[in-house]
What does this fold into?
Amino acid sequence: MGRVVHFELNVPNPQRAAEFYRRVFGWTIEKWQGPLDYWLVMTGDEAEPGIDGGIGPTDGAAASNIVIGVASVDEVTEEVLAAGGTVVVPKMAVPGVGWTAYYQDPEGIVLGVMESDPSAK
It folds into this structure.
């Protein structure tokens, strides 16, 4: 069963967004040291309920996404297409983290998936 494991805020200015969420909610936000312009968001104590997320850039309008943990991006892609969804961003590596893809459901909602694989390049 897929579980929401992450959220993403896609914005024109990630640094400005990071400053906003730090100030308003007290979140800990740090620039990721990987090859993408991405900011890691820790929303609270790991012992408490909740999820962490990230802030990344977009060339378009600001948006938010949920990311669902899956065992196989390839299998989920087949299921999404069979259920009437579409692929928005095909499977791609997040180096050292895993594999991700983004889909649109039949109602227009965009969602992401993440397959854990530290060897992804």
Observations:
- The two ends are 26 Å apart (CA to CA).
